[in-house]
Amino acid sequence: MSFEKKLKAIIKEEGYSQAKFANEIGISTSTVEKYVSGKQEPAGGIMLKIVNHEKFKKYTLWLMTGDVNPDAGQICPAFSTQEKCGLTAGEEDTLKKG
After folding, report:
1. At 81, which CATH number?
2. DSSP symbol at 89
3. Is residue 20 part of a domain?
4. Which residues, other chains included, contact 66 with Cβ-Cβ below 8 Å and sequence gap of 6+?
5. Domains in the chain: how many in total?
């Protein structure tokens, strides 16, 4: 699964616009646009901002590995959101449940 599609799914699942997500993380909207379009991947510091943010922490394992662990509070966006973001159709990887 590609990072840009995962990030897009997280933003959609939380009901955020790209601008609101950027504001929450403390980065520019144009930077988020580059991430969701696949033109750029976040550096380590930005990734830490995402996974350490209270709203997005629950997606850390899934964002980084594709795995989920609901018992530890690590989830992924709903299947319907993943479909809309192209994560379930045409991807070779399937969602692994941990």
Report:
1. 1.10.260.40
2. S
3. yes
4. 1, 93, 95, 96
5. 1
Provide the residue range defining the domain that includes 7.
3-93
DSSP assigned state of 38: T
Express each pLDDT in 49-96 by its tens digit. Answer: 999 999 999 999 999 999 999 999 999 999 889 998 888 865 444 444
98 is a domain residue: no
The DSSP secondary-structure symbol of 85 reads T
Give the separation between CA 5 and CA 90, rounded to whole angstroms.
12
Burial class (CB in 10 A: 0-12, 13-18, 19+), 9: buried
Are 1 and 91 a contacting pair, CB within 8 Å? yes
Helix axes 18-25, 44-52, angle to 10 degrees: 100
Q: Has residue 17 been placed in a domain?
A: yes
Closest by alpha carbon to 31, among 21, 88, 97?
Answer: 21
